[in-house]
Specification:
With 101 residues, this protein is α/β, with parallel strands linked by helices. The protein contains 2 helices and 7 strands, in the order E-E-H-E-H-E-E-E-E. The chain has one domain: Metallo-beta-lactamase, Chain A, CATH 3.60.15. Keywords: Hydrolase.
Length: 101
């Protein structure tokens, strides 16, 4: 079990999912007919990407992951991010932070 976060820009309606952790049917129901533009996987541990293939397959979402974690994620990463890079969802800008540990 782990958490997944669905962010939605109120101005544009664009959605972004952080960590397709598990239960793809539940995630897809939450995403709804509006779909998602992107999925950000925070790191390579399996409990953060178990539903990633199903969610990306169903939505066509672009995938983001940290440069040092992407090789451990079994779904191709479209965009590699490093500390300080930004990811946008609608008019909202998120800043990636690399934390050791």
């Amino acid at each position: 079990n782990n958490n997944a976060y669905l962010l939605r820009c109120r101005a544009t309606g664009e959605q972004l999912l952080i960590d397709a952790a598990a239960e793809p049917e539940t995630l897809l129901a939450l995403i709804g007919d509006d779909g998602i533009a992107s999925v950000v996987t925070t790191h390579r541990h399996g409990d953060h990407w178990q539903a990633l293939a199903e969610v990306v397959g169903a939505t066509g979402a672009r995938t983001y992951a940290g440069r040092y974690d992407a090789e451990g994620i079994p779904v191709p990463t479209d965009v590699l991010v490093e500390d300080g890079d930004t990811v946008t969802v609608g008019r909202v800008e998120l800043t990636a932070r690399h934390l050791t540990g």
